[in-house]
Amino acid sequence: MHRRSCPASGGVVALALCLPAVGALVAGSGAQAGISAGAPPAPPSRERLETVAALQARAWDIVRRQGEFVVGDEARRAFSATNTHYADSLIATQVNLGQVEAAFRTLQESRGSALRQLLATRDLSEQTVPDETWRRYRETLEAQFAAEAALDTAWATERGAGAAIERARARGRSAPYLDLLRGPLAAAREVRRSAEGDRILARLRTQSRWQEVLRAADRTPLPPVLPLAELRRVLAPGDLHLAYAVTGGESTLFVVPGNPAQPIAAYPIARSGAALRRDTQEFLALLIRPDSSPDEVADRARRLTSVLLPEPVAAAVRKARRLIFSPDGPLWEAPFAALVFPGGVPPRSSRAAPVEFLGRARPISVTPSLAVLAALRQPVSRSEPRKRDVLVLSGPQRDALAHPAAGSPADPPASSREVARIHDVRPFPSLQEEGAELRPRLSRARIIHFGGPVARDPDRALGAAILLAATSPFPGNAAVPLAPSTPPGNAAVPTAPSTPPGNAAVPAAPRPRPGNAAVPAAPPATHLSAWELAGLRLNADLVCALSGPGGRGEIIPGEGVVGLPRAFLGAGARSMATALWDTRPDARDALALSLHRHLRARRPSDEALRQAADEVARDARWQHPHYWAGALLWGNPTAAHSR
Prior knowledge:
15 strands; five-stranded mixed beta sheet; 19 helices; globular
């Protein structure tokens, strides 16, 4: 959806851009940074800027009101991605006018709206809408799950066929032989394209049924953002919220103290979105390698810190007890824990001096916006307190999926048995518990630990998956399926994991025989994909999955990263601890075990993760930030502490 799809707002913006000397300002050069090329034009008068701001505000209001009635997660994300520029231009003008609170309000309205919509409607169920309406919605949702699973399998088949050609080419096979292999690849590509079309149609039908559910429940698809005063009450004294607005030109950092008596401040960041992407990727390239030079890492950390936390912000960071980041654009992949804590930064000439990293000095978490954090901190109604509210899912002893980053792909995941011992529970599944209980256990648990590896699908953000336990108590050591509940008369939904290049396609589970439970086929391990979480209703304060790069995914403008963390938050989890990259199993295990020990001691989630990172970094083997700085907490930083 582009400007021509919003003609009223597009016309208002066109009128604003016709004003002299404003085009460059709206594009991001900004009056604060100035214009250095050639003779600088006269800066626009305040009266002209106010006129532009009024027109941009009108355009944004039109777009925002249209978006309030966009229903469905995928449609909502697409709408945000193609219309965020209306808000970005308004934010730039408001900042240049000194209207910082208004600019921050615009930022809250334009960020994370798809996730806010999910959070606002997550408590809808068959108890709140008519039975027939809910039944029709569930049927279309199950059909969507089947289409998603079929697309996963189609992608796996196509990648396997492509990998077969690459292997044959590497072995020097003849051209006729390669031509024979191209036939299956072309057929697999056609099947995948057909599966993509089926998935789109299935999602459109689901969105239509979801609109019926909302109307029956008398719900607004997208509730308005809370007033600024209420939003700020989400922060506790000592909290510091750092929100970025990244544009094509100059970007902006908003600093919101936890004390409501202190004003919101805005600081220019003289780096474009492309430059920030380059800075972030270069830093990540160093951190992903455990053999990279510590001096080079420290030098790059200082340089990126000077950009993301400019000097006026340093004093506020030093005084803060907790840092809550709202990244934007390429900064969603920024390793904030590996930045340098401002204040004790040694001079450039003394590189041998120790560096105090931000992730060891302060608890850190990320959220799409303060408005999303407010929704995640809404009280949860729980029927009764439970003593054993920790669910530990033990992963397979050897990874069945290839890891995309450094590390040993064949090593075992984090020790789930040790995590279970810390919380005095049994790892699931056990001999006393059947796999059919997994879904309700997931829904009841307040802390969930996944010991299996996290796999990223290179083609689909929602194809990211967590490898679950490889065995079950069923005869024959069959895998435990995690398919959404199926209404009577519908086929079972297969749980088909994504398969990296070079692996064979994963067969779907067969249709169950009447009166018998579904018996899945190979492979001997099941997966929990991001798209499957839409069929679950979680009640977890914290989900822990540190055994792979689950913190990365597709970056959607205005929405952030679409992948496992966002899927878990949308399903009802309050927070999720995951990793930006993979690392050695022994360091990964030590981090996970330390995290759970501090959670057991009733420390807030972000503080527990900070102390775990600090403990790992104190080990001489794991001092390099590669081993601990990739761990990141998404969502409510204190949810696990509030139980």
